[in-house]
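Comment thread on ticket #2218

A.B. wrote:
> Attaching the input chain for the structure job we discussed in standup.
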Amino acid sequence: MSPYDVANTLFDARQIPQAIAAYRQVLAANPNHAGAWNNLAGALAISGDFAGAEAAVRSALRFQPSFPEALNNLGNILNKLGRLEEAVAAYRGALALRPDYPTVLSNLGSTLADRQQFDDAITACRRAVDLQPNSPGAWRTLGSALRRGKRLGEALAALMHSLKLDPSVAATYNNLGSVYFDQANLDAAIESFRRAAALNPSDPIALRNLARALQEKGLAHDAIAVLRQSLSLNPNDAQAANLLGVCLYERVQLEQAIAAFRRAIALKADMTDAHNNLGIALKDTGQLDDAMAAYAAALRIDPNHSLALGNRIYTMNFEPGADPAAILRAHRDWNGRLAAPLKAFVKPHANDRSPDRILRIGYVSPDLWRHSVSFFLLPLLQERNPQAVHVTCYATSAKSDAVTDKLRSAADAWKNLLNVDDATAAERIRLDGIDILVDLSGHTSNNRLLLFARKPAPVQVTYLGYPATTGLETMDWRLTDSIADPPGAEELYIEKLYRLPRTAWCFAPLSGSPPARFPDHEKIVFGSFNDLSKVNPPLLQLWSQILHRLPDSTLLLKSRGTSSPSAAARICAEFEQQGINSARIQFLPYQNVSEAHLSCYDQIDVALDSYPYHGTTTTCEALWMGVPVVTLAGRSHVSRVGASLLHSVQLDDLVAHDAGQYVEIAADLAADRDRRRSLRGTLRQTMQNSPLMDGRGVAREIESAYRDMWLQWIKR
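C.D. wrote:
> Ran it. Output below, let me know if you need it in another format.
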């Protein structure tokens, strides 16, 4: 056996270090041996030395320019180096020498897909399959290109055919799982990724993909275990570290989530999603300045990063002393950067302009599960008038629970837009004939505002999920009321304001709520269950003044953020600076079960609303549990929601209009034991008799608003 044959044998046996040494010995004796140079390049590439591999394969081509195998090898190496355009040129050079070279056609197709040239990629891959119809690898590469080109049905067929030819290849199951994931078939995706991981337990990518599907399914706990296994195989996987942070965040392990996001950033400093996610977690622990810095870091990398831009302007609403005009300017800037360019895709609407026909209403939200938005949407669906409206819910996340089932059964139609791009989603909504499309998210997580920028419906409305303008020029209306947005508020919005006659909210508490119980303790307990993102130093100073007025009182805090020991320590330090012993500040752990959460109100005498960002669901829940809420009304919607809610239940006297009055009202209410006892026994019934829980009445008022909006549109 010749030295060259020995080297090839070592290479085939994957004894790479020995093969490299053997090829070098061959080349020392025969420097012009193009085959040895080419095979050395392959061995060096396997070892991770791509620079050395490139030099070796170029030596092969120097001695033998018409060498298609070497050109293919060069393309593979350039691909690994991220030089995709050069890789394509190398593959095309190989095909010029051998047009019917199926391996090169597959490699070319894969690289063209990486460059998002999907039609050309699919053409190349189909040619490879035509040449090798029994090659599972060729079918797998075709399936991958089809998936990335969003031709999911064809991709599924190609990958199934690959598995028919060879059911033992992990990569095929991995690709199949990705197709199912893109189709929002999460159960099938999870099963496919599990098969891939079982066939190749050392592949961290299959594990990461499995974790992503588990997380999307709402199984973050299971995903965390899988991600830790993936990171043990590849500790430098920034994507896995970022996804771990997302899962930890969903499990309300905020400090661990922050650490995971920081790890992802350390591994990949330009990972915009990790910077953005870090900002979200920091916001939830009340670290607004640090959150804004994280968003700014993402935007330095990508000035048009839609999530970071949206989160930055969302977080502005939480900042004490925020200027409403500055918030409006930030929303206008967002629109100019991201939404305005999409106006080119807005098409004329061909909807039947009959004024009195049943209107087709579409609600778009990622929060169609046990989320605050659903507490206010459910009664509108359940009490809808089918002679006036036909309702389609467009879910934009895979989260699903018992509340999802209630919403689904209350709607006329239900469609999922998860993993559906905005252009396709807009076309589907057009085909559904939606007359009025309603955004329920604003700039909160997983919103689809850029779908609304394409204006798939003639009338577009924003409602419920966000306390400010969307900034969208294509958003026609915003549903509100005259207390949350009094006359003159128009100057803070892009949208036209449609003020409902009584209230903008209709609350539906979850079934199984515990009864309201008057606390049996003697000392006053104030409380706030609002997110820590709403709790800021000026607000803590106000609360300190209240605690000073009643020296024996305590303050009870509960939210996602209070699960963070460092966040709790920061709050205690703030109170200590105001002369309040930190022993008077108590924290309850986050409760994910509604009954347990609501029962915590039994410990509170007076609830203190946050400022400037009021509570909405927290205020309604407190009132439902018989706990009076004191709120401070400000200038804009974000700090006027509490005033609107309290007006609905005839508690306008608990609305303060300056800081001093806020302290006085809270202290006086705490001292009035008889009133508090009376409210504990009557507030639930008061709510049930108020506009705040008049599902049928509010539904009729909103349907009337939709009809008015429709009539205004058809008169244009």
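A.B. wrote:
> Thanks. Noting for the ticket: The chain has a mean pLDDT of 95.
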